[in-house]
Specification:
The chain is mainly alpha-helical and about 210 residues long. Among the domains are: about 10-45; about 50-130, no CATH class. The protein has 8 helices and 3 strands. The chain has helices spanning about 1-10, 20-45, 50-65, 95-100, 105-115, 130-135, 155, 180-185; strands spanning about 70, 75-80, 85-90. A 3-stranded antiparallel beta sheet has the order 1-2-3, covered by helices on one side. A hairpin with a 2-residue loop joins strand 2 and strand 3. Helix 3 (about 50-65) packs across helix 5. The two termini are about 45 Å apart. The model is unreliable at about 195-200 (pLDDT under 50).
Length: about 210
């Protein structure tokens, strides 16, 4: 997940990397400011139990729970039967492995909740709820004032900052990352034309 976030940010600052350091930092600040506003607005106008992606997962688990039968053991412990397998669900301890990992009611837990006429609100982690998203992005990314309004101490303005010493490698500087072997082996999806159904002739370029 960390690598995906880094790749996403790197893709957004490709053009900004050609700027001077001050302007590069300002472009990065603008990007994070826009992302903060968008995510905070999405969280504010989300009226479902969870965020969009997690609400979809919750709905999928609910559909899967239709084929599961439930047998009560105690007030909180239940035995559920999914085809030929049996699982034990403890609503207090969240004993089901998927329930513990995702912190969202799995199909087995959903079946138990419906048998008790309970809603999943109290059994979902607060991390996936819109109110948490709003709190996460509630920290503002303050804009930088105009250069004429800066109050810089003299001992800092007089300091000369030199670039780091390094030996530039030969050739043109690389701008794109090196793709791993597995990524290069994945073939691109081809949309074959149904008229001819052969390579080199796809729906996008078809004139018939």
């Amino acid at each position: 997940m960390t690598s995906n976030i880094a790749e996403c940010i790197n893709g957004k600052v490709v053009a900004a990397r050609e700027l001077l350091v001050f302007y590069f930092i300002e472009e990065v600040r603008k990007i994070f400011g826009r992302w903060n506003c968008t995510n905070r607005r999405n969280g504010t106008y989300t009226f479902t139990t969870l965020g969009k992606a997690f609400q979809q997962l919750l709905s999928i688990n609910e559909c899967k729970s239709l084929r599961i039968t439930v047998e009560p053991s105690t007030e909180f412990v239940y035995s559920v039967h999914d085809q030929s397998r049996r699982f034990i669900i403890d609503l207090k301890k969240k004993t089901c492995q998927m329930f513990q990992m995702e912190e969202i009611p799995c199909p087995h837990a959903w079946a138990v909740l419906k048998s008790k006429s309970l809603t999943p609100d109290d059994f979902c982690s607060d991390l996936f709820k819109p109110k948490t998203m709003v709190k996460t992005y509630n920290v503002p990314v303050d804009p930088l004032p105009d250069k004429s309004e800066w109050n810089i101490p003299k001992h800092i303005s007089d300091e000369v900052v030199l670039p780091p010493r390094y030996k530039r490698p030969p050739g043109r500087p690389q701008k794109k990352r090196d793709k791993p072997l597995m990524e290069t082996m994945i073939s691109k999806r081809r949309n074959a034309c149904s008229t001819y159904g052969r390579l080199g002739h796809n729906r996008r370029s078809c004139c018939n």
